[in-house]
Design goal:
This protein is mainly alpha-helical. It has ten helices and no strands. The protein has a domain of about 150 residues: Tetracycline Repressor, domain 2 (Orthogonal Bundle), CATH 1.10.357.10. The longest helix has 25 residues.
Length: about 230
């Protein structure tokens, strides 16, 4: 989630190579996002104008608007690129579990936090989270929420099959709860400059331990699953 190179998803058909003109447009789009994100982190999202982005990128303000009708659209593009980039790390964790449910769930959370460390980076992610709440119906946001929750569910299913957690646990519901806990923790992490990644993950570990102790006697989870049917 931090200050890593931005790589936008390929917008053409699978296997279709982009022509020179399209490559130039894609690169300019990428350059504008990188310039905007740097400004957001340095000055704050609200303080940056589209004119500032144009000036820093050495293009006309009209050019910026041609690519992004609003600053919100830039945030969305940055979020999409960040989520796409993180997929490989999430899948690596899924494919190489350590053998302890809590350890592996915390690994996923750590990968999601990434290198978000500096105050400007945290402030930017608070803005992104605010946008995702306002635009909750956006298909892109639903996709990435479901994607990350599915990684939690995959891990829980693996450990359930291995006999590490109760066979009657509703892993889909449990994964949803864990995702909510992680989202709340990440927001708290972004709001508290003194909270380190290690401190945030330590808190998450304690919360997971409480959940798993409760789920050891998972009758409430079974009842909740039946209530949804």
């Amino acid at each position: 989630m931090g200050d890593r190179p931005i790589v936008l998803p390929h917008r053409g058909k699978p296997g279709e190579a982009l022509g020179l003109r399209d490559r130039k447009k894609a690169q300019q789009r990428l350059d504008l996002i990188e310039v905007a994100v740097r400004l957001f982190k340095k000055r704050g999202y609200e303080a940056v104008r589209m004119e500032d982005i144009a000036s820093k990128a050495e293009v006309s303000t009209k050019t910026v608007y041609n690519y992004f009708p609003t600053k919100r659209d830039i945030l969305i593009e940055f979020l999409v690129a960040d989520r796409e980039r993180a997929i490989s790390e999430f899948e690596r964790i899924i494919e190489t579990p350590l053998g302890n449910p809590i350890d592996d769930l915390v690994r996923l959370m750590e990968a999601d936090i990434g290198d978000v460390l500096l105050p400007g980076e945290r402030a930017l992610w608070l803005e992104i989270m605010a946008v995702t709440v306002r635009e909750r119906g956006d298909e892109r946001f639903r996709r990435y929420r479901h994607m990350f929750t599915s990684y939690f569910e995959t891990l829980l299913s693996h450990f359930q099959e291995a006999g590490n957690i109760s066979p009657s646990l509703d892993v889909a519901l449990a994964a949803h709860i864990i995702h909510i806990v992680h989202s709340e923790n990440f927001e708290h992490f972004c709001m508290e400059p003194g909270l380190t990644v290690e401190g945030a993950l330590s808190l998450a570990r304690k919360q997971l331990e409480l959940l798993f102790r409760a789920w050891a006697d998972d009758k409430p989870m079974v009842d909740a699953r039946r209530a949804r049917k």
